[in-house]
Each structure stands twice: as structure tokens, then as C-alpha cells.
From TrEMBL:
The keyword Ribonucleoprotein does not apply. This is Multidrug-efflux transporter. NCBIfam families: matE. Keywords: Antiport, Cell membrane, Ion transport, Membrane, Transmembrane, Transmembrane helix, Transport. GO terms for biological process: monoatomic ion transport. Belongs to the multi antimicrobial extrusion (MATE) (TC 2.A.66.1) family. One of its GO terms (molecular function) is antiporter activity. It is a multi-pass membrane protein. Pfam families: MatE. Its main location: membrane.
């Protein structure tokens, strides 16, 4: 019996996945918006939040790849009707991920000053980066644990519980941000940037606790490690390593962009911080359909339904592009208010308005890249994803970035490089999908 792909089926997974996916960028956006409006040294705080946020996102994305690998393997087993055979793998994967995250955390905490100096932070901005990071970094293992659990639920074709976790974390973070950053008269002194860090850390801890409880109460999976090692653990590690290298290449692009923006001056890194947070937010917004492709694609591959797989790719691409066009429309309608929501500093806003149109116009390109990226993860095509990102970064983004710098394009050069980067990524994935899976169709 072949699978039928309907709009309802896709959105049942995509809508909750969208809400869940924006949790982490929403934490950073909340920090950016609230910190950027601090009356005392708001521009320095905004710059520090952007630099630290970019570095933490790099760490989370690099080590969070186990989520995609475990989701792909579980969904393929579900599609093949062998769910019970995979029960011992999640615990082993989670412990591996947490162990790596603690190792990375301990290795960075002692060289934090050097890390942010490398990113061109100096003076007050460097001081704020260190204090902000020293608090937020402890949420790193918590976030990776939460991501791993979300990957397990995705593999089981369930995006509802990850959505609940994300909603609670996002709402709590906004609430605590206002209290800790601005204080409560007569009760709590304003903590400014450090308050934003504590708000994020507490929200991440609550999300991790929720993930732990839901995993134990809503699935048959247990976190007690079992021997022998699951035979799929080797494949999971190889898939994760390919995604690890891919994430390194991805974050080289993001970090180079932050470094170049910081070198231009405080107003530019402030503007870039706003732009990259909006870019990430829209990416995770579109990523809901990528998640549906990831989840359903793995299941369809497991059941060898290649007709359904091709139909799925076609439908989620259309839906994703429609979402991106909606985001474009909203971006142009609220072009000015969006900037003032994040900062009241005129030089920062002028720099931001000079690049925001590039961020908006790139949305359809981004949607295709993100959707096929998610689909390829579900299909277990991690090696091709790795090679595509390496090519896009080293043959596309980096040359374009420094060509833009040579011609004095400043922030516009950085965001033109981002657009080219996404065009190469999306185009390569569409071509490979048609080459590899179109011949397998029966109709």
C-alpha cells in the first residue's frame, strides 16, 4: 500500500515543527530586541549579544547534527515497520552528544577572551561578550539534549511535543528577559545584558527538563544506556561526522561575516546582528516544511515509496516558497518598524536599512535550499550535503565576501555573499535530487 501525501499530512508535521524550530533563534531575537533598547550603552550590548549569539549558534549547529541523523534513522525504521529494533539507539546517541558538548564547553570557557578578540571584539564590547558568554554557555549542553530529544520525536513522526517544549521556552524567555534586563522597581535591580543571559539559561533548563519528562512518559524509549552498542550507532556517527564537517563550513561563513562586520565598526555589527537574527528566524520559520520533508522523506524511503517521495518534494517546495513570499511581503510592509523594534540608535538603523532589502529578497532562494536540505537529511544523504556546503562556502561565499570587501561594499557585500551562498546550496540539492530519485519513480 503506497503512501498518500496530502496538504493536511504535511502541515500536521510542518506547523508544529515551525513553532518548535524558531525556539532557539527566538531566544536570541528576544535578547537582541530587549538589549538593543537598553538606554545605558545599548549599542555595545547589542554588538556583544550578536557576537556571542553567532558563536553559540555555531557550537549548537555543529554538535546538534545528531538530531538530524537520529531522526533520519528512526524515521526510516518506522517506514520499514521495524520501530522496536531501534529502541536502544537514542540513549546511546544522547550520551555521546552530551559528552561531546561538555568537552567543547570546558575547552572554550578557558579561552573565551581569545575567542572574542579573534572576532574583533575590543573594549567594552569584549568585556560584555565575556560576561554574557560566561553565563549563556552553560545552556549549551541543555540545548543539545533538548535538540536530541526533538530529533527522536521527529523520527517517530511527532512534532507536537517539540512544539510544546519550544512554546514554553520562548514565552518564559521573553518574560524573564523583561524582568532581569530592566529590573523591578524596589525588588530587583536591572541586570542589563547579564540579565538577558540568565533569562536564556533558565529557559533552556526548563526546556531540557520538559524534554526529559516527555521522552520518558510519551515514548517507550529509556535513557538508561544498554549494551551491546546498537548496530546503527556506527552509521549514526558517520552521518553525524559528515554533518559536523558541513556545520563547520556553514559556521565558517557565519563567523567570517560577523568578523568582517565587527571590523567595520560598532554600528555595522549592530546592524548585522539585527539582520542575521531576522535571517535565522525566517530560516527556522521556513524550516517547518523542511522538517516535514525530513520526517516524511525518511519514512517514504524506508517503505521504498519513491513516487510518494517525489510528490512530497514537489509539494513541500511549493509550500515553502509560498511561506517565503509571505515573509517577503511582511518584510517590505513593516520595513521601518522592524528596525526600530530592535534598536533606537540612528546610525545602527541607517546601516540596517541599507541591507535589509537583500535579506528580504533572498527569502525564496533560502526556502528552496532549506527545504531540500531537510529532505536530504531525512534520506540520509549527509555526504552530499557536506560536499555541497563545502563548495558553496569555499567556492562561493568566501570569494564573494572578499570581492565585496575589495570594492568597499561594506555590509551589502556581506549579504550579497550570503545570497550567492544560498543559491549554490539550493541549486545543487535540487539537481542532485532529480538525478538520483527521478529515475526510481514508477509513474
Amino acid at each position: 500500500m503506497k503512501n498518500t501525501i496530502t496538504f493536511k499530512d504535511i502541515n500536521k508535521l510542518a506547523i508544529p515543527a515551525t513553532i518548535a524550530g524558531i525556539a532557539e533563534p527566538l531566544l536570541s531575537i528576544t535578547d537582541t530586541a530587549i538589549v538593543g533598547n537598553i538606554e545605558v550603552e545599548g549599542i555595545e550590548s547589542l554588538a556583544a549579544a550578536g557576537i556571542v549569539g553567532s558563536f553559540l549558534s555555531m557550537l549548537i549547529w555543529i554538535l546538534g547534527q545528531t538530531r538530524s541523523a537520529i531522526s533520519a534513522i528512526i524515521s526510516q525504521y518506522v517506514g520499514a515497520g521495524k520501530k522496536e529494533a531501534i529502541k536502544s539507539l537514542p540513549a546511546q546517541a544522547i550520551y555521546l552528544n552530551i559528552g561531546l558538548s561538555i568537552l567543547i564547553l570546558l575547552s572554550t570557557i578557558f579561552i573565551v577572551d581569545d575567542i572574542f578578540r579573534f572576532l574583533n571584539a575590543t573594549g567594552k564590547i569584549l568585556e560584555y561578550c565575556i560576561s554574557y558568554y560566561s553565563i549563556r554557555v552553560w545552556g549549551f549542553p541543555l540545548t543539545l539534549f533538548t535538540f536530541a530529544v526533538m530529533g527522536i520525536f521527529r523520527g517517530l513522526q511527532n512534532t507536537f511535543y517539540p512544539m510544546l517544549i519550544a512554546i514554553v521556552g520562548a514565552v518564559l524567555n521573553v518574560f524573564l528577559d523583561y524582568i532581569f534586563v530592566y529590573g523591578i522597581t524596589g525588588i530587583l535591580e536591572p541586570m542589563y545584558l547579564e540579565g538577558a543571559a540568565w533569562a536564556s539559561l533558565i529557559a533552556q533548563a526548563v526546556m531540557a527538563i520538559m524534554a526529559f519528562i516527555l521522552l520518558l512518559t510519551k515514548t517507550t524509549i529509556r535513557l538508561k544506556p544498554e549494551l551491546p552498542l546498537h548496530p546503527e550507532l556506527g552509521r549514526l556517527i558517520i552521518m553525524s561526522l559528515n554533518l559536523f564537517v558541513r556545520a563547520l563550513a556553514l559556521n565558517i561563513a557565519l563567523i567570517l561575516a560577523v568578523r568582517e562586520a565587527t571590523a567595520l565598526g560598532d554600528k555595522y555589527i549592530g546592524a548585522h546582528t539585527i539582520a542575521i537574527n531576522l535571517w535565522l528566524f525566517s530560516a527556522f520559520f521556513i524550516d517547518g516544511y523542511a522538517a516535514a520533508g525530513n520526517i516524511m522523506g525518511g519514512k517514504l524511503l524506508g517503505s521504498k515509496d519513491y513516487d510518494g517521495l517525489f510528490l512530497l518534494a514537489k509539494k513541500i517546495m511549493i509550500y515553502g516558497v509560498l511561506v517565503s513570499l509571505l515573509l517577503m511581503t511582511l518584510g517590505f510592509i513593516f520595513y521601518t518598524p522592524i528596525g526600530t523594534f530592535f534598536s533606537n540608535d540612528i546610525p545602527v538603523l541607517n546601516a540596517f536599512y541599507g541591507i535589509f532589502f537583500i535579506v528580504i529578497l533572498g527569502q525564496p532562494i533560502n526556502s528552496i535550499a532549506f527545504i531540500f536540505d531537510g529532505l536530504f537529511k531525512g534520506l540520509g544523504e549527509m555526504k552530499y550535503l557536506r560536499n555541497t556546503l563545502l563548495a558553496a562556502t569555499f567556492l562561493g561565499f568566501i570569494p564573494a565576501l572578499f570581492i565585496g570587501k575589495y570594492f568597499g561594499l561594506e555590509l551589502q557585500g556581506i549579504w550579497i555573499a550570503f545570497t550567492l551562498w544560498m543559491f549554490i546550496r539550493g541549486g545543487a540539492l535540487v539537481i542532485e535530487f532529480k538525478r538520483k530519485f527521478m529515475p526510481l519513480r514508477t509513474v
